[in-house]
Design a protein that fits this description.
This protein has about 325 residues and is of the alpha/beta class. It has 13 helices and five strands. Helix 5 crosses helix 8 and helix 8 runs parallel beside helix 13.
Length: about 325
């Protein structure tokens, strides 16, 4: 790790992690590994990792093995390398890419590692303790925007699962147990899950200066300029290719579920046409008791890097 740099992008599924990681992947010297913690596509990943809670004082041998390989750039499969397979396999799809799984050396990789993880939100303190050289970047998205996408995909938020971990409750969620248990409707559960998870991230980040939090909507406000700023904050080298490719993502949507090509400015409040006023209010009721500094007034328009300051919504 002393010779190999590692950047870890984390966030909820559908929070903008794919777009963020893709746009960072143009930093010279980095190879992008997509979701090595995806239990559906990576054999070593386990479903129980979704709600795993680890700290500097607690460990999990299976998770350690998986993440040690991931941070070392050793988890090269057709799935994890889909966005960055290297020049030999880039022209191929399907069976051609699968050759790389039999002969991993065919995935020609650069030394430095960029990971996108979607089930690591509760393990960031563990990463800080065990991989201190790795830079962590957490992307937040307004809960209504994020969970509008979940609802469209038929995914159900389950905040009650967080209460099954006694250490997590003792360390962070004790004051909110009754609130979380009372969440019933989709949007109540969405608000509780988002707020409880972000509460843990926020408390741990206050004590860890090596972690950055960035608001998805802030990036959407001016992608080229703000990604250039983010590159600088992460110690990555901004370059002409990054600017060119980031501009390409800020274009007319191709309507594919997992596409990163979308007009960025539209994504900030697109959910307002999809979520009823009473649903927004239900989500808000379960977010506000956590007193988080993000998205003041529950608006997605933000003017700060982390989304801790809001601007007047557009008319």
């Amino acid at each position: 790790m002393a010779e190999r740099r590692c950047v870890i992008v984390v966030g909820f599924p559908r929070s903008g992690t794919s777009w963020l990681a893709k746009c960072l992947s143009f930093a010279p010297g980095f190879t992008y590994y997509r979701e090595p913690d995806n239990y559906d596509r990576v054999p070593e990943a386990e479903r129980r990792f979704i709600n795993l809670y680890l700290t500097a004082e607690h460990d999990d041998p299976a998770y350690r093995r998986l993440m040690s390989r991931a941070c070392a750039g050793e988890l090269a499969t057709a799935f994890t390398m889909r966005e960055d397979p290297g020049p030999l396999l880039a022209p191929f799809r399907g069976p051609g890419r699968a050759l790389g799984e039999r002969f991993p050396s065919l995935f020609l990789r650069r030394r430095h590692v960029l990971l996108k993880l979607v089930f690591a939100n509760l393990n960031l303190a563990w990463f800080s303790a065990n991989f201190p050289e790795a830079r962590q970047l957490v992307v937040l998205r307004h809960p209504c925007g994020q969970f509008a996408s979940w609802r469209r995909l038929g995914w159900e938020p389950n905040p009650a699962a967080l209460l099954e971990n006694p250490r997590l409750v003792a360390d962070h969620l004790g004051p909110f147990v009754d609130l979380i248990r009372s969440a019933e409707s989709f949007w109540e559960r969405a608000g509780a899950l988002w707020a409880a998870t972000v509460h843990v991230i926020h408390r741990q980040t206050r004590a860890d200066n090596g972690r950055l939090i960035v608001a998805y909507e802030w990036l959407c406000g001016d992608p080229a300029a703000r990604f250039e700023e983010l590159y600088g904050s992460m110690g990555l080298t901004w370059n002409a290719r990054a600017l060119r490719e980031i501009r390409k993502t800020n274009t007319r949507s191709d309507d594919l579920t997992y596409s990163v090509r979308r007009p960025a400015a539209v994504q900030v409040d697109r959910w307002k046409d999809l979520v009823a006023a009473e649903e927004i209010e239900a989500c808000r009721r379960f977010v506000e008791p956590f007193e988080l500094p993000y998205y003041p007034d529950f608006e997605p328009y933000v003017e700060s890097f982390s989304g801790a300051r809001s601007v007047t919504p557009r008319g």
